[in-house]
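User: Please predict the structure of the protein below. I'd like the answer in structure-token form so I can feed it into my own downstream comparison script.

Assistant: Understood. Taking the following sequence of 127 residues as input:
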Amino acid sequence: MKLFTKTMLTVAGISMATMAFAADPLANTSWQTFDEGKPKGVVKITESNGVLTGKLVSTVSEKGKKHVGMTIISDLKADGGGKYSGGNITDPEKNKTYRMTATLSGDTLNLKGYLGPFSRSQTWKKK
């Protein structure tokens, strides 16, 4: 009986640790994007094997509708403490990809895209 109890506690502990590791706060969330303060679109972020990806799921502009379904965030990884790096972000209208970092703070996601020494920031709100 002791062996059974110890085994069950070990299995439960491993299961809980695995669930805690896999539960990135960005996984399976949707974000309202903005451009010059105006709502632009919605991006759904998913996680697979510790890598975050974001797809454009809706847009407010007619010309942007052709980009719905496009992956615009790729290869983003958690650094801990709400910080993310190593990713790429694509501007669908210009079809240009930039290196990116992100910082999660509550219901706000601050993104920064880099092209050489230049950068541009955006703030997205959780939907």
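That's the full token string. Helices lie at 2-22.
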